[in-house]
Amino acid sequence: MADHRTEFLKASWVNVITNVLKIVVEGGLGLAFGSLALVADAAHSVADLLASAVVLVWGRLSFEEPDKNHPHGHERVEPLTALFVGGTLVLLGLKLLFDAWRSIQSTPKAHYSIYLVAALGFAFVDRYFCYWYTKRINRTVQSPGLAALVADSKNDLYTTFAAVIGVAGMAGGFPLLDPLAGGLVSLLVIHQGIEVSRENVDYLIDSAAPEHVCEVLKGEIRSHDDVHGVHDFTAYYAGTVYEVEFHAEVSADHSFIEAHDIETDLRDALMAREEVGDVHIHLDPAGMGEWKEADENRASSSVN
Question: Are 153 and 127 in contact (CB under 8 A)?
Protein backbone atom coordinates (compact mmCIF):
# COMPACT_ATOMS: atom_id res chain seq x y z
CA MET A 1 0.00 0.00 0.00
CA ALA A 2 2.89 2.37 0.78
CA ASP A 3 4.38 1.68 -2.67
CA HIS A 4 1.02 2.37 -4.28
CA ARG A 5 0.78 5.67 -2.45
CA THR A 6 4.24 6.70 -3.67
CA GLU A 7 3.42 5.80 -7.27
CA PHE A 8 0.09 7.61 -6.97
CA LEU A 9 1.84 10.78 -5.82
CA LYS A 10 4.41 10.58 -8.64
CA ALA A 11 1.70 10.25 -11.29
CA SER A 12 -0.33 13.08 -9.71
CA TRP A 13 2.68 15.41 -9.75
CA VAL A 14 3.44 14.54 -13.38
CA ASN A 15 -0.14 15.57 -14.26
CA VAL A 16 0.20 18.85 -12.38
CA ILE A 17 3.56 19.78 -13.94
CA THR A 18 2.69 18.82 -17.52
CA ASN A 19 -0.58 20.76 -17.35
CA VAL A 20 1.23 23.87 -16.12
CA LEU A 21 3.70 23.64 -19.00
CA LYS A 22 0.93 23.18 -21.58
CA ILE A 23 -1.05 26.14 -20.23
CA VAL A 24 1.97 28.46 -20.33
CA VAL A 25 3.11 27.49 -23.83
CA GLU A 26 -0.19 26.95 -25.62
CA GLY A 27 -2.22 29.58 -23.78
CA GLY A 28 0.44 32.25 -24.10
CA LEU A 29 0.86 31.79 -27.86
CA GLY A 30 -2.89 31.40 -28.38
CA LEU A 31 -3.53 34.75 -26.70
CA ALA A 32 -0.66 36.40 -28.55
CA PHE A 33 -2.06 35.46 -31.97
CA GLY A 34 -5.78 35.46 -31.13
CA SER A 35 -6.39 31.73 -31.69
CA LEU A 36 -9.61 30.70 -29.92
CA ALA A 37 -8.86 27.04 -30.64
CA LEU A 38 -5.53 27.21 -28.76
CA VAL A 39 -6.98 29.31 -25.97
CA ALA A 40 -9.84 26.81 -25.57
CA ASP A 41 -7.39 23.92 -25.47
CA ALA A 42 -5.25 25.76 -22.91
CA ALA A 43 -8.36 26.56 -20.86
CA HIS A 44 -9.18 22.86 -20.93
CA SER A 45 -5.77 22.32 -19.38
CA VAL A 46 -6.64 24.82 -16.64
CA ALA A 47 -9.47 22.48 -15.68
CA ASP A 48 -7.05 19.57 -16.01
CA LEU A 49 -4.64 21.35 -13.67
CA LEU A 50 -7.39 21.89 -11.13
CA ALA A 51 -8.46 18.26 -11.49
CA SER A 52 -4.93 16.92 -11.06
CA ALA A 53 -4.37 19.18 -8.05
CA VAL A 54 -7.60 17.92 -6.45
CA VAL A 55 -6.60 14.31 -7.13
CA LEU A 56 -3.19 14.99 -5.61
CA VAL A 57 -4.60 16.55 -2.43
CA TRP A 58 -7.76 14.49 -1.92
CA GLY A 59 -6.92 11.25 -3.66
CA ARG A 60 -3.97 10.40 -1.43
CA LEU A 61 -6.36 10.28 1.54
CA SER A 62 -7.76 7.04 0.10
CA PHE A 63 -4.48 5.34 1.06
CA GLU A 64 -4.95 6.19 4.73
CA GLU A 65 -5.78 3.30 7.05
CA PRO A 66 -9.20 3.05 8.77
CA ASP A 67 -9.41 5.14 11.91
CA LYS A 68 -11.87 5.95 14.67
CA ASN A 69 -13.83 8.41 12.54
CA HIS A 70 -13.58 6.34 9.33
CA PRO A 71 -13.86 2.69 10.39
CA HIS A 72 -14.31 1.51 6.79
CA GLY A 73 -11.32 3.47 5.52
CA HIS A 74 -11.32 6.31 3.00
CA GLU A 75 -12.29 4.51 -0.21
CA ARG A 76 -15.00 7.02 -1.11
CA VAL A 77 -12.54 9.92 -1.24
CA GLU A 78 -11.24 9.03 -4.70
CA PRO A 79 -14.58 8.70 -6.49
CA LEU A 80 -15.63 11.95 -4.82
CA THR A 81 -12.47 13.52 -6.23
CA ALA A 82 -13.11 12.11 -9.70
CA LEU A 83 -16.72 13.32 -9.59
CA PHE A 84 -15.46 16.83 -8.85
CA VAL A 85 -13.16 16.53 -11.88
CA GLY A 86 -16.06 15.49 -14.10
CA GLY A 87 -18.32 18.31 -12.92
CA THR A 88 -15.57 20.87 -13.48
CA LEU A 89 -15.04 19.64 -17.04
CA VAL A 90 -18.75 19.91 -17.87
CA LEU A 91 -18.94 23.51 -16.63
CA LEU A 92 -15.77 24.51 -18.45
CA GLY A 93 -16.95 22.86 -21.66
CA LEU A 94 -20.21 24.81 -21.57
CA LYS A 95 -18.30 28.07 -21.11
CA LEU A 96 -15.99 27.27 -24.04
CA LEU A 97 -18.95 26.36 -26.24
CA PHE A 98 -20.57 29.71 -25.49
CA ASP A 99 -17.34 31.56 -26.32
CA ALA A 100 -16.99 29.67 -29.60
CA TRP A 101 -20.55 30.53 -30.58
CA ARG A 102 -19.97 34.21 -29.89
CA SER A 103 -16.79 34.16 -31.98
CA ILE A 104 -18.56 32.49 -34.90
CA GLN A 105 -21.23 35.20 -34.85
CA SER A 106 -18.57 37.92 -34.99
CA THR A 107 -15.53 38.29 -37.23
CA PRO A 108 -12.66 35.95 -36.21
CA LYS A 109 -9.50 37.95 -35.50
CA ALA A 110 -6.92 35.15 -35.27
CA HIS A 111 -3.59 35.45 -37.10
CA TYR A 112 -1.61 32.47 -38.33
CA SER A 113 1.97 31.98 -37.13
CA ILE A 114 4.44 29.13 -37.21
CA TYR A 115 4.65 29.55 -33.44
CA LEU A 116 1.09 28.24 -33.19
CA VAL A 117 2.21 25.04 -34.92
CA ALA A 118 5.12 24.76 -32.48
CA ALA A 119 2.71 25.20 -29.55
CA LEU A 120 0.49 22.41 -30.85
CA GLY A 121 3.47 20.11 -31.32
CA PHE A 122 4.56 20.76 -27.75
CA ALA A 123 0.99 20.13 -26.52
CA PHE A 124 0.86 16.74 -28.28
CA VAL A 125 4.14 15.59 -26.77
CA ASP A 126 3.23 16.94 -23.34
CA ARG A 127 -0.18 15.24 -23.15
CA TYR A 128 0.93 11.95 -24.70
CA PHE A 129 3.74 11.60 -22.17
CA CYS A 130 1.31 12.35 -19.33
CA TYR A 131 -1.24 9.85 -20.70
CA TRP A 132 1.38 7.11 -21.15
CA TYR A 133 3.00 7.59 -17.75
CA THR A 134 -0.23 7.85 -15.73
CA LYS A 135 -1.76 4.82 -17.47
CA ARG A 136 1.39 2.76 -16.80
CA ILE A 137 1.37 3.67 -13.10
CA ASN A 138 -2.36 3.00 -12.74
CA ARG A 139 -2.04 -0.56 -14.01
CA THR A 140 -0.64 -1.29 -10.56
CA VAL A 141 -2.30 1.36 -8.39
CA GLN A 142 -5.84 0.93 -9.82
CA SER A 143 -6.90 4.41 -8.68
CA PRO A 144 -10.20 5.92 -9.92
CA GLY A 145 -8.67 9.36 -9.51
CA LEU A 146 -5.74 8.47 -11.75
CA ALA A 147 -8.11 6.69 -14.14
CA ALA A 148 -10.01 9.97 -14.51
CA LEU A 149 -6.73 11.76 -15.26
CA VAL A 150 -5.79 9.08 -17.82
CA ALA A 151 -9.11 9.64 -19.59
CA ASP A 152 -8.54 13.38 -19.37
CA SER A 153 -5.05 13.16 -20.88
CA LYS A 154 -6.30 10.93 -23.70
CA ASN A 155 -9.10 13.36 -24.42
CA ASP A 156 -6.53 16.17 -24.50
CA LEU A 157 -4.98 14.55 -27.56
CA TYR A 158 -8.34 14.80 -29.34
CA THR A 159 -8.93 18.38 -28.26
CA THR A 160 -5.43 19.37 -29.38
CA PHE A 161 -6.08 17.74 -32.75
CA ALA A 162 -9.24 19.83 -32.99
CA ALA A 163 -7.07 22.90 -32.35
CA VAL A 164 -4.88 21.78 -35.26
CA ILE A 165 -7.92 22.14 -37.52
CA GLY A 166 -8.35 25.72 -36.39
CA VAL A 167 -4.70 26.62 -37.02
CA ALA A 168 -4.78 24.87 -40.40
CA GLY A 169 -7.82 26.95 -41.28
CA MET A 170 -5.97 30.14 -40.46
CA ALA A 171 -2.98 29.02 -42.53
CA GLY A 172 -5.27 28.27 -45.49
CA GLY A 173 -7.20 31.53 -45.30
CA PHE A 174 -10.27 30.17 -43.49
CA PRO A 175 -10.17 31.85 -40.05
CA LEU A 176 -13.72 30.68 -39.29
CA LEU A 177 -12.31 27.20 -38.71
CA ASP A 178 -10.62 28.47 -35.54
CA PRO A 179 -13.82 29.13 -33.51
CA LEU A 180 -15.42 26.03 -35.07
CA ALA A 181 -12.49 23.98 -33.76
CA GLY A 182 -12.89 25.69 -30.40
CA GLY A 183 -16.54 24.62 -30.35
CA LEU A 184 -15.56 21.03 -31.17
CA VAL A 185 -13.05 21.08 -28.32
CA SER A 186 -15.75 22.24 -25.92
CA LEU A 187 -18.09 19.39 -26.95
CA LEU A 188 -15.33 16.85 -26.32
CA VAL A 189 -14.70 18.39 -22.91
CA ILE A 190 -18.39 18.18 -21.98
CA HIS A 191 -18.59 14.54 -23.13
CA GLN A 192 -15.56 13.59 -21.09
CA GLY A 193 -16.92 15.32 -17.97
CA ILE A 194 -20.23 13.48 -18.24
CA GLU A 195 -18.53 10.09 -18.65
CA VAL A 196 -16.22 10.60 -15.67
CA SER A 197 -19.08 11.83 -13.49
CA ARG A 198 -21.45 9.00 -14.41
CA GLU A 199 -18.92 6.30 -13.55
CA ASN A 200 -18.08 7.75 -10.16
CA VAL A 201 -21.67 8.43 -9.15
CA ASP A 202 -22.11 4.64 -9.15
CA TYR A 203 -19.27 4.35 -6.65
CA LEU A 204 -20.77 6.95 -4.34
CA ILE A 205 -24.40 5.78 -4.22
CA ASP A 206 -23.60 2.14 -3.38
CA SER A 207 -24.76 0.77 -6.72
CA ALA A 208 -25.10 -3.01 -6.98
CA ALA A 209 -22.21 -4.99 -8.37
CA PRO A 210 -22.63 -6.23 -11.97
CA GLU A 211 -24.30 -9.62 -12.28
CA HIS A 212 -21.17 -11.36 -13.57
CA VAL A 213 -19.24 -10.15 -10.50
CA CYS A 214 -21.97 -11.49 -8.20
CA GLU A 215 -21.84 -14.89 -9.90
CA VAL A 216 -18.07 -15.08 -9.47
CA LEU A 217 -18.34 -14.23 -5.77
CA LYS A 218 -21.16 -16.72 -5.23
CA GLY A 219 -19.07 -19.37 -6.95
CA GLU A 220 -16.24 -18.65 -4.53
CA ILE A 221 -18.63 -19.15 -1.61
CA ARG A 222 -20.16 -22.36 -2.97
CA SER A 223 -16.73 -23.84 -3.61
CA HIS A 224 -16.25 -24.34 0.14
CA ASP A 225 -16.80 -28.03 0.99
CA ASP A 226 -19.06 -27.27 3.97
CA VAL A 227 -21.33 -24.77 2.21
CA HIS A 228 -24.50 -26.32 0.77
CA GLY A 229 -25.97 -23.11 -0.60
CA VAL A 230 -26.09 -19.33 -0.37
CA HIS A 231 -29.01 -16.92 -0.18
CA ASP A 232 -29.76 -13.29 0.72
CA PHE A 233 -26.64 -12.40 -1.24
CA THR A 234 -25.82 -8.72 -1.79
CA ALA A 235 -22.75 -7.09 -3.28
CA TYR A 236 -22.55 -3.33 -3.73
CA TYR A 237 -20.00 -0.57 -4.15
CA ALA A 238 -18.53 0.91 -0.98
CA GLY A 239 -16.26 3.45 -2.60
CA THR A 240 -14.37 1.70 -5.39
CA VAL A 241 -14.56 -1.79 -3.84
CA TYR A 242 -17.44 -4.15 -3.12
CA GLU A 243 -19.05 -4.82 0.22
CA VAL A 244 -20.46 -8.35 0.30
CA GLU A 245 -23.25 -9.71 2.52
CA PHE A 246 -24.77 -13.19 2.41
CA HIS A 247 -26.21 -16.16 4.31
CA ALA A 248 -24.25 -19.40 3.89
CA GLU A 249 -26.12 -22.67 4.39
CA VAL A 250 -24.22 -25.27 6.45
CA SER A 251 -25.08 -28.48 8.27
CA ALA A 252 -26.45 -28.17 11.79
CA ASP A 253 -24.09 -30.72 13.32
CA HIS A 254 -21.03 -28.47 13.23
CA SER A 255 -19.59 -27.36 16.56
CA PHE A 256 -19.35 -23.67 17.36
CA ILE A 257 -15.61 -23.74 16.66
CA GLU A 258 -16.13 -25.49 13.33
CA ALA A 259 -18.76 -22.96 12.32
CA HIS A 260 -16.37 -20.18 13.25
CA ASP A 261 -13.67 -21.75 11.08
CA ILE A 262 -16.05 -22.02 8.12
CA GLU A 263 -16.95 -18.37 8.45
CA THR A 264 -13.27 -17.40 8.67
CA ASP A 265 -12.43 -19.45 5.58
CA LEU A 266 -15.21 -17.78 3.60
CA ARG A 267 -14.22 -14.31 4.69
CA ASP A 268 -10.52 -14.87 3.95
CA ALA A 269 -11.29 -16.28 0.50
CA LEU A 270 -13.39 -13.27 -0.49
CA MET A 271 -11.14 -10.66 1.12
CA ALA A 272 -8.22 -12.06 -0.87
CA ARG A 273 -9.88 -10.62 -3.98
CA GLU A 274 -8.72 -7.06 -4.75
CA GLU A 275 -12.21 -5.90 -5.64
CA VAL A 276 -13.69 -6.86 -2.24
CA GLY A 277 -13.39 -4.39 0.63
CA ASP A 278 -15.45 -6.02 3.38
CA VAL A 279 -17.52 -9.16 3.98
CA HIS A 280 -20.46 -9.84 6.31
CA ILE A 281 -21.50 -13.48 6.78
CA HIS A 282 -24.43 -15.16 8.48
CA LEU A 283 -24.37 -18.95 8.84
CA ASP A 284 -27.71 -20.73 8.57
CA PRO A 285 -27.83 -24.25 10.10
CA ALA A 286 -30.13 -26.90 8.67
CA GLY A 287 -33.55 -27.32 10.25
CA MET A 288 -34.40 -23.65 10.80
CA GLY A 289 -36.51 -23.34 7.67
CA GLU A 290 -34.58 -20.44 6.16
CA TRP A 291 -33.17 -22.53 3.33
CA LYS A 292 -36.61 -23.63 2.25
CA GLU A 293 -38.00 -20.12 2.61
CA ALA A 294 -35.17 -18.71 0.52
CA ASP A 295 -35.75 -21.36 -2.16
CA GLU A 296 -39.46 -20.54 -2.26
CA ASN A 297 -38.74 -16.84 -2.58
CA ARG A 298 -36.35 -17.49 -5.45
CA ALA A 299 -38.89 -19.69 -7.19
CA SER A 300 -41.60 -17.04 -6.72
CA SER A 301 -39.34 -14.33 -8.12
CA SER A 302 -38.49 -16.39 -11.19
CA VAL A 303 -42.19 -17.00 -11.93
CA ASN A 304 -43.00 -13.31 -11.63
Answer: yes
